[in-house]
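Notes from the pairing session

We agreed to fold both candidates in a single pass and log them together. This is the raw record for the first candidate, unedited. Please don't reformat it; downstream parsing expects exactly this layout.

Candidate A
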Amino acid sequence: MACKRIFSILRRASWAAVCLGLAGSAAVPALRAQEKPAKPEPDVLIFSDGERLIGHLVRSSGKSITFHSDMAGDVTVDWSKIQELHTSKPYAVIRKNVQFHKGENPEQIPQGTLSATDKNIEVTPGPGHPPQIVPVDDSAYVIDEAAFQKAIGRNPSILRGWKGAISAGASLVEATQNSSTFTGSAAFVRAIPTEDWLDPRNRTTVDFSASYGKVTQPNTPVVKTAIYHADAERDEYFTSRVFAFGQLAYDHNFSQGLNLQQAYGGGVGWTILKSSNETLDLKGSLSYVNQQFAAPAQSLNLIGATVAERYARTFPHKVLLNEQLSVTPALNNAKAYSAAGSVGLTLPVYKRFSLATGIIDTFLNDPPPGFRKNSFQFTTGLTYTLP
């Protein structure tokens, strides 16, 4: 009897535990639903003609703003065409000529919800704080407050912040003459900070390019072309436009009898043009150059003074133009001067894939006998842009 009574009690207890567990399981989603934060109210944009868009403000840059609507997508419009703008989320309004690397206190940047017209932006920080008025003409950027705070306090690791592209092309011919040509390049850049509304602190670039070709024919010596280039540069900014840099470069050019050229140097650069779609840098540097030719007697150790420029422009439909030119006279050998130039055009094709075409020209004034001074390349291929 005692055993039966104990068994009955245990059975009832187990059923009670199951019921409590089911009840708890059913209650969890309800509790989670209650804890889920309410969806923020949408922002409202009213055009000068009275048309209204509902969505959220993405950002403002200069004289225009970008507004996202579920129905219309991203819309960019000038401030002059806006009658009113009201936001429910807080934003940071960055005035022109604000430079954080010169000690600007982020707390002095107006932050809060916005109520704006084409003339003024009224920033309301919150209860107990008076609103601040920023003229539209005095505003450089309007940024989501959470993104602003994250960017100000962030110091990304060396593995983060890289952007770049990888290109490859090939040509094959099978006939009386068999020929093959392979070209490839990789370019990477890391600019800190990554946000365009913050003044630059440093920039790191790494580039590599290669061109290899071979022509064979029965009873005829093989004709080969092999050109390789690799370089890296580190820029440290004094101001938003002036920077110091250190650089290194390695070159091999079978067509000019150059087994290996090593260059190490540094100098000062100046960003002459800087906008959302266009940059132009002018640089001057001193470098040590070691040239090792196929004829060992021709090898040289040089001190070079380099003047260089680098230009980039983004055209409509994300068509990208890159151009650079450098001239390096040798201070200790008047005959051993060199120059290099390149122009590249990238046309988007599908998502991250683009068609790339370019021209690379290198000049050595003192190659070994039997080699031309000039080496010209025309390349085309498919490019993949890294996320």
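Candidate B (folded immediately after A)
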Amino acid sequence: MPTTSIDTFFACSLMVLLVVSAMAYTSKTLYPYTNSMEHANVAERYEIISKYLLLNDGKPSDWGKNPKITPETIGLARSDSDTPYDLDIDKVTRLNSENRYAVSYAQLFKALQMTDVSFNIEIKPVFEVTINLTSSYKESNETTYEFEIFTGKHGTPIQAELKSYTVAENYTESNDAYVSSGRSQMNITLSNEVHGPALMVVFAGSTSCNRIVSFNAYAFSHNSVEPDPKGTFLGLSPLNYSLSVSRFFSETTLSEAHALSFNCSSVLTQTEDNISSATYDIPYFLYPSPIVIIVTGWNATSSFVEWISYPQIPLQIGVDSAVSTVLSDTYAYSYMITINSAFYECMIQLGGPRG
């Protein structure tokens, strides 16, 4: 599929979203009757349930922001929004099992209040960003790293505007955005006085719609050993615009924390710190973009860079789709949703006992 076709896909998706929005009220009001619908209408029933999950805010309506609350009824919509398919950033984030405040599938299944329906929810950016380090050139005072950036959907290139950040211990640098046709080269030069490892974060905004922004991050060594896997030293859990940091080792010290988005960046203010954890305030950026949060620090004599996104995506929760397909009749529904005005892709699979 050529780039022009992908751009058309984005435009059509937005138009479909507007059309489906007009049908949203029907899906919300029909939900209470889905338990009594005849089995012959299973596809219609599942579609209504899938829409209900995205159109309603659940009970209590603010269950996402409070980590001590488990929803009585499930719903992912923002309670203060009249826009259909506008999801709450914290309800979505609590679907990610890596978050310390995550809601389990068992709790969500109970909150669905339908013992004959299993489900799987996947939320991710509309397209992918792939980062590869292709070469490096070390000189006496600095080292240049050459990266290949690919933006695409299912392997097909997508034209996007790129913005990158490079973060290391006591070092942050941003690079101006430029348009990529799908595959491009990006060079990063670091002073040899900077101590790594370093993290490169790339945001990619669709040229056809500034509300479609994807991202990825790539850790690499710079005057250091190879980076440890993500989550080795810290557990990062964003919720209600506060970042909870869990230390996995007693000798871990924290240096700086940053919040990055396509058009904005900020150094985070620490509000609490003790031997096992710390908290930081997360700013609210008006530009429609996911936020990547980075924390640098030391563990004994080794420095590290840890990161997480807010909303905490991509994520997937629920019954494994392969297992569900074997054991039940499974239906999949794809939606374009918004979180803080930015567009994302949501896939909901629902299944039940075979007839």
